[in-house]
Structures are given as structure tokens and as C-alpha cells.
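User: I'm putting together a teaching handout on how multi-component assemblies are represented. Below are the sequence lines for each component of a complex, exactly as they appear in our records. Could you produce the 3D structure of the whole assembly as C-alpha cells, so the students can see both representations side by side? Please keep the chain order the same as the input.
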Amino acid sequence: MKLEPMIQFRLDRKSGVPAYRQLVDQVRQALRLGLLRPGDQLPTVRDVVKQIAINPNTVHRAYRDLESQGLTEGRPGSGTFIKRSLSKVPEQQQALQRQLEKWMRAARKAGLGSEAISALVAEAMRSSEQEGHR
Amino acid sequence: MTAALETVGLGRRYRTKWALRDCTFSVPEGSITGIVGPNGAGKSTLFRLAAGISRPTSGTVTVFGQEVRLNSSEHLKRLGYFDQLRPLYSGFRVEEMLTLGRRLNSTWDNAAAREWLSELNIPMKQKVGHLSLGQQAQVALTLCMAKRPDLLLLDEPVASLDPLARHELLQTLMGTVAEQGTTVFLSSHFVSELEPVCDNLIILSSSQVKITGTIESLLADHRLLIGPDGPEPLNGVEMISSRKTGRQRTLLVRGIPPSLGPGWQDLQPDLNEIVLAYLARRAPGANHKLADDGTSDGGPS
Amino acid sequence: MIWLAWRRHRFLLALFAGLLVGLGVWMVLLAHAFDHASNVCRDQTYQCGFQYGVFSIENQATAINALLLFLPCLAGIVFGAPLVAGELEHYTNRLVWTQGISRTRWFVTKWLVVGLILGALTSLLVLITQYWSGHVFARLPLTLALNGRIQPTLFAVTGVAPVAYTLFAFSLGVALGAILRRTSWAVVGTVVGYTAVALLMVFSIRPSLASQGFLSTTRSTSVQYVTLPRPQPWILSYGFRFAPGTQPSTGASSASAIAKRCLNQSFTGSSYDQCLSTHDVQGGFFDQSATHYWALQWRETAIYLLSALVLLGMALWAVRRWRE
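Assistant: Of course. Below is the structure of the complete assembly, with chains in the same order as your input.
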């Protein structure tokens, strides 16, 4: 029985980031956004490799990394499954995301371009880091 | 761990010209190793020597510890060979090519072979001569893989294939490797083709091995230094290539560069840049000697 | 591997079989036509014969004979030359030599499958040829010279020798293809080689494969003639020998030398015949008796088959030695 793949991997060959790290990052991103939830099954190494034609060792390594980070667990005979989530408070995160989108619409209305918005966000992030928030 | 494929001082001479010379490397079992080099570098000669259809002039080549001989069929049981020319019998139907494989090999997974080909929509009853280039390559690859070899020797498997056919072939290959743990040794002109699929890389040029190593270590060991024209900071590093453009010098070095002076940048080269530097390099040692005034020879100007 | 050898050559083998069947049918029809004509024209007068198409039958028989003579060479160039050379030219050797069987097994199986089928087809054809030649040539009134299977043109297409010729030509083509590595050169080499060997056999070797007979000529007025026994022997050459029972003195010249001297002397008036009989020399035809037919057939077959095996060995050596 073939299950629906819960995540579609994509490799950016020009980014300079090693392939296994890209896979790990994509799983983490999906977890953060709530697209992957505890209990979901990651595609098998074979399926990933058949899809994007990369070295199976790369996928093995990414999965091992995820396992060592405690994010996944391998069940022998079944596959690799998500163990815990990265989005800590999903409702809070969704509310924050809606606020952010509202702000974004206001900024656009005020005539700010993408570069200006990115600069504002980067500045805000920097100052929040300086204040010691994670 | 045994080497799936190992060469020691391997060489092949045709009349007066050496097609391959003093070639020493090993392909670890279970790895995917790529070999890259320009036309005429000796890649195909190397594959034919490993497959046992050519005989070395000097040196040895062993497959899983057994020396490869011209007329023995022992090593063939563990080996699948994909020739650059992808020879097939164009009058045979696809299913007849599979019958050929079944009759000439002691182990043969016909069900898997049919499944691979049907996934790619290659019709069994079609004559091989009427298939597209990409489909013929897939049939040739299927012939290699269906005998469930422990080592796959693939000489330019995706050369002259369109991007879709190339992707499909690599998908099929990687899928099988993921299932079987087959060792793969493949060649290409293009580093970009090999980088996503290979663990290790061998760079071959002018019939000789320039360097081998895992892709990770190759990337980690080399730095790209860009600086002003003048004395070069080369203590403790090996210069691979040097290029001068206007008032700027670009060096590719191997090793950990010392602290650089002002005006120098220390960057991570990508694999393509590393390979090109080695391909352009003439002989190791020729590029090290520097005059005190900082001028040097070697490398493309 | 047997499957592969058959699959690769089945089309050409079928064509060749078809050609042989066509020839066979033609021969059988011709034999029947001749039988019919012979039965009607029992007294075998020429006029009767012509009316019943015996002349045309003879022409056709000559044509068939020529085709049959060429068949072994054809087998050599169609099946032998490309057997190995064709694979090398298309680089398919790189495919079949890297599967799971050795080159020796690949080559020997191919050779055996095609060779045995060719041998079997040729054997069947030879049976029909025996029947055909027995009916058409045995009672031909017009071409007495072709009478008898001991004559070269019929000898080469009857008995067991044609099977050996076919295997030899096939082997020759295979060996030339394996050594020269090009089908076209192997074709030329096979035609030249086979023809050369055939001519050598007819003119030098076969005459010595059994003991030769001698038909001394008798003189009647100014004409020398000889009475040929039936069935007619194969006349080899005209020459001289010492009469049986006489012993030439040691150190004396050969019979031909003496005959030459007698001839020279006869220019000055002395009797040539008397000179010959004085020295116990006879002039006449060396021949192979028709009764030697099977002895010659078997010995010649042995020579051709052994040569085919030698060529097989050479081809195998070339295949094993081949390196890219």
C-alpha cells in the first residue's frame, strides 16, 4: 500500500549548502509550519532518491541527523516517523502569523517595497536578539 | 572493508600512446564513486579494463579482490557493465533483450526488469532500434541492474541524453542502489551531474589520476584565494592553479592557508572550480616553484 | 546462449533453408521430367529427346550443378564471415562478453548452432542431389563427358563431401572474420581461399588420394584411341609409364624422359612406337576409376573436416585474444 508522501523534498544545487543539510532544514521548516506533525511518516530513502535522484547516503545522513536531534524515530520494518513538533504553540503561532500578515498589508499600503520591508524585519530581528530574546 | 574496485599502477598503451597511465585508486564497497575528466582522458579505457574486455599493459585491476582477466567469467557474476556506446541488438524487441540477459546470466530478476521498464512506459514489444536514445539507455541500464550485481560500472550513462531522460535514468539508478546497496562507479564529463549522486570523486586528465577523495573532503581541503598581484601567501599549502586577470590573482590551493594579508579573500570554491583547476594543472610539482617576486608559471593564463 | 545464437541467425538460416528447398524442388521436378522423356523416347534418338525437352533439361541441370558448386562458399560468406566480425564491427561484443558466460562458451555455442544447422540442411540437399544425379545424369545421351559421379563437377555436389565443404567454408569465413575483424574482408578472403583450396584439391590432391589407373592407348592407322570402360573413369592426364611386369634398370631415366627421347628420334625417321616398345614404355591416360568414388569422397571429406576444425581453433584463439 503506497501512502501519500507527507513532504516533497527539493534540492537547490546552487545554494552551496550541503544536500543532507538542505533535507534536514526542509523537514525542520515543515515541522515549524505545522505541515508535518508527530506521527507522520517521512518518505523512505528509496522514495526520496527515486524522486530527486540523489545519493541514498545523503538521505540516510539527513535522517540520522534528524533522529539525533530527537525529531524523528525509526520503527524497524515500518519506516521513519516524526516524534515531536517544532511549532511549540500552534495556536499562538497562527495568531502571530495573522498579525504579521496584517502588518504586511499595512506596510504595502503605505508604499513600502519588498527591500524596505526586509530591511525593517531584519532590523527588528536584530534588536530583538540584542535584547536577549531567542 | 574490501574495495569493490581497485587499481594499482594501471596502464594501457596502444602502440606508442598511453591511453591510461599509472592509475591507482580504490572504490569502497557500498559507495557511489564518480570519475570525471575530459574526452580522451582515459575514462572509457579504465572501464573496459575493469570489465575485462581489455587487458592492461601495466599494473593490475581487481574486482572484489579478484584480478580481472580477459577470458574469465568469474568476475562477471558480480559486475554489471554499461558501455559508453550502449550496444544493443537493434533488431531485438525489448523483451528479447531481457531474454538475452536471462540466458547469459546465472542470476536474473526478470520481474524487476519488467517493472522498471514499465514504470518508464517502455513497451516490451517494441524493437530496440525504434526506441529513443533515452529509452535505449534505460534498456541498457536495466540489463546491467537486473542481474543484481554487487558493482555497477557505468561509462557515461547519461551522455547525450535530454534532461528528462537523464533525470529518469538517475532516478532508476538511485532507486536500485537504495534498495540493494550496490557499489556504483560512474563517469561523466560534468561535475554537476556527479555531485548530487556521488560520495567520492576521481579526477582523471591526460591519462592520469590527478586526485581522489570524498566530495566532502575535496570541498573542505581546498580554498579559493583572491588577491592583488604580488607575493602569494603559500606557506603550508599546495597551489593547484593560478590565474591572473588585470591586477587580480586567483589561486586555488589545497590545505589550510595561513593568515592572509590585506586585500586577500579566502573563499570556498565549488566542486566545479576544484575539478577545473586540477584538469588544467600540468604536473604536480611544476606549479610550486615560485620566484621571490611572486611570479609563477603553470595554470591557464 | 543456444537461444541467442538461434535468435541472431534464424532469419538468414530460414532464407538459406528456403533456397535449398527451392533447389530441391527444382531438382525433383527435373528428374521426373527427364524420367518421363526417357520412358517415352526409349530408343533415345536425339529427335525424340529434343521434342521432350531433354535439351532444356540438360541446360537446367548444368545451371543447378553450378549453383550447387557455389553453395558452400555462399554459406561461408553469409554465415561465416559475419559470425564474429559482425559483432566486433557493431561493438555488441562489449555487451555479450560482459554478461555471465565466457568468450569460449559464447563462440563455440554460436559456431555449433549455426554449423550443425548448415550441416543438416546440406545433408538433406545432398540426398536429393544423389537422387537427381542418378536420374538425370546416368542416362544422358548428349553429354557423355559429364557421365558419372567421379567427374569433378558431379563429385563436388554428391556423396558426403558437400557437407564437409560447407562446414569448411563456414569455418574459413568465421576464422577470417575473427582474425581480420571486418566482415567485408572476410567475405573476399573466404571466396578467394575457398576457391583456391577447391582448385588445389581437384588438380593436385584428389588425384593422389587413391591409386591411379592407366589406360594405354592403342594405335590404329594414324589415330590413337582408347576404349573407356563403363562407368567412365575420371581422366587425369596423358603420360607415360613402364609396362606392368617390366623392370626399369636402376639409374635409368623415367618413362616420360624416354618417351621424349623417342619423340626426338622420330623426327629423324625412326619409328616412335617401336622406340617406346623397345624400352617397355606405354603411353596413355592416368585415371581414377569410377569404383574409387566413395574412397575419394571419404578421404576428401576427412581432409576438409580436419581443416574446418583447425580453422575453428584459430578463430577461437583470435576471439580469446581480442582486447579493446
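A couple of points students might notice: The two ends of chain A are 43 Å apart (CA to CA). Chain A has a mean pLDDT of 83.
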